[in-house]
Amino acid sequence: MSPIAKPPTVLLIGTDARTDALLAACSQSPQHPRLVGLCELPMPGWAHRCEQVFTGSLADIELVKRIAMQVQADLAIIGPEGPLAAGYVDALGSCGVPAFGPSRKLAQIESSKSWARHLLDRHGIPGNPEYRVFETNHDLQRYMEELGSFVVKPDGLTGGKGVQVFGEHLHSIDEAVEYAEAVLHKLQKVQVEERLEGEEFSLQTITDGETVIHCPLVQDHKRAFDGDQGPNTGGMGSYSFADFSLPFLEKADVNQAQLINERVIDALSRETAEPYRGVLYGGFMATGSGVRLIEYNARFGDPEALNVLPLLDTDFVELCLATSRGELARVDRAFASRATVCKYVVPAAYPDASPPGVRIATPSVDAGLEDLRWFWAACNEDDEGVSLTSSRSGAFVGIGDSVAEAYVVAERAAVELEQRNPGKVRHRADVGSSDVIAKRIAHMNSLRGACG
Fold first, then answer.
1. Any residues with CB less than 8 A from the CB of 350 and at least 6 apart, and which?
2. What would you report as the CA-atom Rg of the chain, rounded to the nearest whole angstrom?
3. What percent of the chain has pLDDT over 70?
4. Non-local CB neighbours of 138 within 8 Å, separated by 6+ positions
5. Is the CB of residue 132 less than 8 Å from the CB of residue 192?
6. Beta strands in 101-156 (DSSP E)
7. Domain 130-194, what architecture?
8. How far, in Å, CA of 155 to CA of 189, rounded?
9. Cα–Cα distance for residue pair 244/336, rounded to 1 Å
10. Cα angle at 90 between 309 and 59, to 5 degrees?
11. Across 184-189, average pLDDT
12. Among 264, 28, 22, 29, residue whose Cα is nearest residue 38
């Protein structure tokens, strides 16, 4: 009789709804893993789902190493981009702890937008828009005037909020130059790109450097308010379709995005002599003349992870372990053919600062309701309950056979939570609505018609 294998100990690192979704996926593993959390806030619900929860700065790499060794972690799963860019995968590896995610060198695909653009150019991979990287302000104004319509991007991590669009955030060339010079002063590099017109979509590809698993495509909504109004945020919600595509995309668009991700994974390995292991998440734009790359991320998206992880029909812990070992080919993997709508609930003033310590009534999510999920984000939990921060509070994910079904599930839950917390929280009602999706389809049809 063979001995019973010891359940693996999994250390989850992060303080957001994406990491809560990763925790939920791990908790469904048939291996019954011992779950340990490290977060910057006392995340609601983690004390009940984890055997141990540590709170501390995610910028403290020595703390992470000490915790990993103390709990004898068999695997670390890192949610946000900061620890990846800081080299947490390398540090954990030096302690003998495999991690799901790329090394610091490979995480440059997200932490340096210019490095990512140049990688595509060096390897002849299509998808780049017209762009230039500036290290001084020389020719900055002339290039902006030459492009006419452009975006300004910091060459570093900005939480999805650093990109400024001419005509929306920047209302004159002088204002654009001033912003670009401020970025230069802070980061020593700034990128100016042509402004693309089309529809954005997200493709998350799980890989061990050889085998790839393309997740269902997702469309995010970054603007703060209904109708795509207001400033950019970390993401107010997203949706995915049961056929894993999006209705405004053609098959050629999907194939092109998948091929770009696959070629970039290969180029990363050849350029760094290391296999890319983890998630390569491409933010793409479908235009009238094909697919263009907006940017790359070195981890699951937030909110996009919340759409795809509940659909994963495999042991997520085993998938992550196999990825970290270069053995992804041996893992059975599949996604349920269902649609999702994710709706973030945020403080009423978001993305502006909110008063600290505002108490909220928590969601009444029936644990037996298979078609609704709730994932906590940046909230505090103590003996008196849950309080808000200035960041996103949490997200409902509705699941259905169609986006229309999933929308009803998520919207009903979000409205109910608002009603229980009047004046304290809000959400975008239009994420995943039939009207918004119809507009996306009409927009792409008009662009293709103009280019045809």
1. 224, 233, 390, 391, 392, 426
2. 21
3. 97
4. none
5. yes
6. 131-134, 150-154
7. 2-Layer Sandwich (3.30)
8. 6
9. 10
10. 75
11. 90
12. 22
The CB density around residue 13, as the number of other CB atoms within 10 Å, is 28
Q: What is the pLDDT of residues 419-441, one digit of tens each?
A: 999 999 999 999 999 999 999 99
pLDDT for res 279 = 98
Using a 10 angstrom Cβ sphere, with 0-12 exposed, 13-18 middle and 19 or more buried, the burial of residue 223 is middle
Reported as a pLDDT band with limits 50, 70 and 90, residue 364 is: confident
> In sequence order, what are the beta bridge partners of 296?
282
Rounded to whole angstroms, how far apart are CA atoms 375 and 22? Answer: 10
Judged against a pLDDT cut of 70, whether residue 2 lies above it is answered with no
Give the mean model confidence (pLDDT) for residues 271-299: 96
Alpha carbon separation from 198 to 261, 293, 445, 447, 451 (Å, rounded): 19, 12, 10, 7, 12
CATH 3.30.1490.20 residue ranges of the chain are 130-194
**In 124-160, which positions are buried (b, 16+ CB within 10 angstroms) versus exposed (e)?**
ebebbbebbbbeeeeebeebbeebeebbbbbbbbeeb
Contact 200, 283 (CB under 8 A): yes
- 415 exposure class (CB count in 10 Å sphere: 0-12, 13-18, 19+): middle
| Model pLDDT for residues 52-63, shown as the tens digit of each residue | 999 999 999 999
Looking at the chain, the whole-number percentage of residues with pLDDT higher than 90 is: 89
| Burial zone of 66 (CB within 10 Å; 0-12 exposed, 13-18 middle, 19+ buried) | middle
pLDDT over 80 at 135, yes or no? yes
Give the CA distances from residue 9 to residues 60, 312, 368, in Å, rounded to whole numbers and listed in that order: 21, 21, 26
Q: How confident is the model at residue 160 (pLDDT cuts 50, 70, 90)?
A: low
Q: Where in the chain is the domain with CATH 3.40.50.20?
A: 9-101
Report the DSSP beta bridge partners of residue 220.
238
CB atoms within 10 A of CB 238: 29
Q: Architecture of 9-101 per CATH?
A: 3-Layer(aba) Sandwich (3.40)
